[in-house]
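During the reporting period the student researcher (J.K.) took over the structure-prediction task from the postdoctoral fellow and processed the backlog of single-chain submissions. One of the processed entries is reproduced below for the supervisory committee.
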Amino acid sequence: MDVPGSAAATLPHGFVFDIDGVLLRGKEVLPQALRAMSKLYTPDKSSPRMPLAFLTNGGGMTERRKAHQLEQLLGVNIHADQVILSHTPYRSLAAKYTNTPVLIIGRNHSIVEVAKSYGFNKTISSQQIARSDPTAFPFWAQKEDWVAGPSADRYVPKLRMGIEDNPIKAIFVMTDPSDWYIDLQLITDILIGGGVLGRRMEHVPANTPPIEIFFSNPDLLWANQHPAPRFGQGAFKACVETLYEKVTGTPLTENIRTFGKPNPEPYRLVEASLLKQAKKMDLLPRNFSFSTSSKPPFSAIYAVGDNSAADIRGANSAGSPWVSMLVKTGVFPKELDNCPIDPAVFVVDDVEKAVDAAMHHTRSMKWHSMR
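J.K. obtained the following structure tokens:
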């Protein structure tokens, strides 16, 4: 955990904020978040004074819609390219699966639209499959609501996905599912059936390639208005892995990949966003050149989060000039001084105090550089 020193003090600094547990608790905006934004934005709230981004393991909507949502909540101007969601790294996989059938998992039908906006053209959701074959989910509480009436479409025959001639090739978990029963059943069916719905494991041809499965974040727990942390997508992933091993007798270790914090992909996307903003603000040296192998040209990138296993571990692993800042308004227990496993560089009570500490640290670096 290196704190950037005086040699880099002439470079700009930037801020990266987690959302849940830092700026919000559920749907409620923390008052400290509003005061923090006022310190970072111009008086008219139209633009940040320095490069700034929002990095969350949440999702379920497009980056543009999330930016608009944050604008309404925080009262400042936010652009879509300042927002990195848990599934934003899936964009890099769209070229591989552009015209390949993929299963989309998560809450509500908007996740399908998000996947299509990334370039996944042949998508099918668990809700669509459930409506096509209610017998696959005999204990689904909402089954009668979905399949009642003549307008209940049979999506799988119409889209011709998940059949032997057109099997599902990959599964993308976009968000924490709301109905674990149907999603756990369906994912297991797809994995052991080689992408064909209803095919038993022993009937899968020997040369069938394994189905790839992607999770957008590994968070075991997350914070909302409830006094205790709630299960997140990491808990759902653990259920998938356990059920697969119970059914097949083999661990699910291949063709499975997890994105989101603390993995490196979202941090590279944030660095690209901050660099773009710094160029637009004319904050970089005139003769500066940057390659993907170079260290980001910032004196510090202050990463503010509430989850030591995600936010702090990710920022520490990203290396200099990232500076981890842990707040006590979310998952992290208030009674602890720091996390012994993933210790933060700075530990403060809330996001406003994090901004104050970061500003003080930046002024101190500049002062020492002039000595």
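The committee noted the following: Confidence is low (pLDDT under 50) at residues 1-7, 146-155.
J.K. will present the remaining backlog at the next meeting.
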